From TrEMBL:
Ranges of Low complexity composition bias in the record: 1-11
Biased composition (Basic and acidic residues): 14-23
Keyword Cytoplasm applies: no
Region (Disordered): 1-23, 58-77
Organism (species): Streptomyces longwoodensis
Protein name, UniProt field: DUF3105 domain-containing protein
One Pfam family it belongs to: DUF3105
């Protein structure tokens, strides 16, 4: 009887010990799985952080490159305290036959046609080929342009001023943004009307002004409508 009890006790102890070993084995496996999962999660976070940092770095580089390109290009107007806008980009002066697409309307310069528009106080009633008018600007002319929104009284008064001023010309331009604009080589001014004091100031400064690429060049002997 005692032998049977001893045998049963030993078997129970063995089972308990086996269960403990199995439990310890499960705990080890769980710890390994937890550690492995943590390593994977940390690795994922690190990779994600690297990707985000790299993306931000690339964005910064792209932004810097874009800003640098804009700064180097400089193709834009800068408006002075007198309201005159000055073009900061390069203006070509090559005579071409192929149509030129100017970055502003009306153009303040750039490659142009070989023949200029007569600009000896000429008033035109139809829009001009800008490539010929730009050549007039190269000779030091001031070009007055207007849209259908300009008051007739202002148009008439400006026409009278142009007719009495050598190295000027005038024409309609319905593609421009403002009703009345004054243009010289590399410079432009919006005016409110013929009585705007800026008109006289612009003429005084830019008719055969310091901006003229070819001062003294002819304003006759070119094209006329």
């Amino acid at each position: 009887m005692g032998s049977a009890k001893s045998s049963s006790s030993a078997a129970r102890t063995a089972r308990i010990e086996e269960m403990r070993r199995a439990e310890k084995a499960r705990e080890r496996r769980n710890r390994i799985l937890v550690i492995a999962g943590s390593v994977v999660a940390v690795a994922a976070l690190v990779v994600g952080a690297v990707v985000v940092v790299q993306a931000r770095s690339d964005d910064d580089k792209d932004t810097a490159a874009s800003t640098s390109a804009d700064a180097k290009g400089g193709d834009r107007f800068v408006t002075g305290s007198d309201g005159v806008r000055t073009w900061q980009g390069k203006l070509g002066r090559t005579h071409v036959t192929k149509k030129v697409s100017y970055p502003m309307e009306p153009p303040v310069g750039g490659d142009h046609a070989q023949v200029w528009m007569n600009c000896n106080g000429n008033v035109y009633t139809k829009s001009l080929n800008p490539m010929n008018a730009v050549h007039s600007l190269e000779h030091g002319a001031v070009w007055v342009t207007y849209t259908g929104k300009a008051a007739k009284a202002d148009v008439d008064a400006l026409a009278a001023k142009v007719r009495s001023t050598p190295y000027t010309l005038m024409s309609p331009d319905d593609d421009q943004a403002e009703p009345i604009m004054l243009t010289a080589w590399g410079h432009q001014r919006v005016v409110s009307g013929a009585g705007d004091p800026a008109v006289g100031a612009f003429f005084e400064k830019f008719v055969q002004g310091a901006q003229t690429p070819e001062p003294g060049a002819a304003c006759t002997g070119g094209l006329s409508q």
